[in-house]
Write a structure and sequence with these properties.
- This protein has 413 residues and is mainly beta.
- Strand 19 and strand 20 form a beta hairpin.
- It is globular and about 55 Å long.
């Protein structure tokens, strides 16, 4: 972090040495049981849930990640109807910084406060473009960008608008855009109309190689109450991770094997429960799993506690065993890896990406105020480093960084 800050200050002092130019960014580098438990305290009270098609796995033992390049560039865009977000884009300039940065890269200078309107951010890179996938509550939007720092920039494409009268007609939350085995998929939380709190995970499939084109509904993956689904690709197999209340005792993290990107073929296994005090601020919650891979190791960074509070934070799971479907394979760190900092309260719900220089970045949201609520959530981006043992940590410490200047490597020259 200090390296990037120094470079930014030198560039301001000696502008002649900073040749501003804009180039293409690089590629990014980062069903259930039959629950009867109600939603956690910070959600609406659950009503009677329909029965599930899958049961818990036999085991009783106590990816996703940075995006992957594909082989064929997508065709030109065929956009759906256009939408906008109510947000102010950050001031971003493309520059070649002086100092320790390698001269062969083109960088974009930015501050890690990226603007309002960016709750539950999911960012993915694909063939020289970046895409921000988010929800308006009633639609799913995909925004094409030249840099991941532009997530609050106005303008996006509506890729999915659910019909009325279905189990996924309203309250669309936290969509994630994944490119899996040559096809685009979006995993999104939604519930049925009529006031039921029957949120569950659904999957949409792209109709072309352009992720800003319309998506079609492809099926339901989990039973209520479940949210925040993501995909782990590990050793040629697909796994689905999500948060739910299937076993009571608060909101937990679950995993199941996927027969395909649109279907689960195993029972679920709970891999994390909110047992530590820092996972119980306002409510007992583990949610928003995000896969991070590095040096052959697999991590899941998740959000803990009530998302409306300053106690919301990021925890860490490590796949220490060989079988992701065994709860014993997952080891939880005893302390959070990111907590509230100055003007960045309740950091959580992150995505991991990698720039052209190989630096891993976390894109997450936080609040400007410590007061309880969701209205002031905004996007942030911060570099992630790794210990000699490969364990991820946030540059600058465990407190979310304030408005700090950084450089993101867009591409090689």
């Amino acid at each position: 972090m200090n390296r990037r800050l120094c470079a930014f200050l030198l560039c301001l002092l000696f502008p002649a040495s900073c040749a501003c130019q804009k180039q293409e960014p690089p590629l990014s580098g980062a069903s259930s049981g039959d629950p009867t438990a109600s939603a956690p305290a910070d959600r609406q009270t659950a009503t009677t849930a329909p029965s599930s098609t899958l049961q818990p796995a036999e085991s009783t033992a106590s990816s996703g990640s940075t995006s992957t390049p594909t082989q064929t560039p997508p065709p030109s865009a065929t956009t759906a109807d256009t939408a906008t977000t109510v947000a102010t884009p950050p001031t971003t300039t493309t520059a070649t910084p002086v100092g320790p940065h390698p001269a062969e890269y083109v960088y974009t200078a930015f501050h890690n406060y990226l603007g309002y309107g960016c709750a539950d951010p999911y960012v993915v890179g694909h063939y020289g473009r970046w895409y921000f996938c988010y929800s308006t509550g009633s639609t799913v939007q995909v925004k094409k960008m030249d840099s991941p720092t532009e997530i609050s920039k106005l303008g996006a494409d509506t890729v999915f608008r659910p019909p009325s009268g279905t189990a996924y007609s309203t309250d669309l939350w936290a969509p994630e855009l994944h490119y899996i085995r040559g096809e685009w998929y979006i995993y999104v939380t939604a519930r049925s109309a009529g006031g039921k709190d029957d949120h569950r995970m659904h999957v949409l499939k792209g109709t072309s190689q352009d992720p800003t084109a319309p998506f079609a509904y492809a099926g339901t993956l989990t039973a209520p109450w479940s949210i925040d689904g993501t995909v782990l690709e590990h050793r040629g197999e697909l796994y689905f991770l999500w948060a739910g209340t299937h076993d009571g005792g608060g909101e937990r993290l679950y995993i199941a094997h996927m027969a395909s990107p649109t279907r689960l073929d195993s029972g679920y296994v709970c891999i994390s429960s909110p047992t530590y005090g820092w996972e119980q601020a306002g409510a007992k919650i583990n949610e928003a799993p995000a896969v991070l891979k590095r040096g052959g190791k697999v991590y899941v960074v998740y959000s803990a506690s009530d998302s409306a509070t300053a106690g919301y934070c990021l925890g860490l799971l490590t796949l220490a065993g060989t079988d992701p479907l065994s709860a014993a394979s997952w080891v939880k760190s005893s302390e959070p890896i990111l907590v509230s900092g100055k003007d960045a309260y309740g950091p959580g719900h992150c995505t991991f990406i990698e720039d052209a220089e190989g630096t891993v970045w976390a894109v997450y949201h936080a609040k400007k105020s410590a007061a309880k609520g969701w209205a002031d959530r905004h996007g942030r981006m911060q570099p992630v480093s790794f210990t000699t043992d490969g364990v991820p940590y946030f540059e600058g410490g465990t407190a979310a960084a304030a408005d700090v200047a950084y450089y993101f490597a867009l591409s090689k020259r």
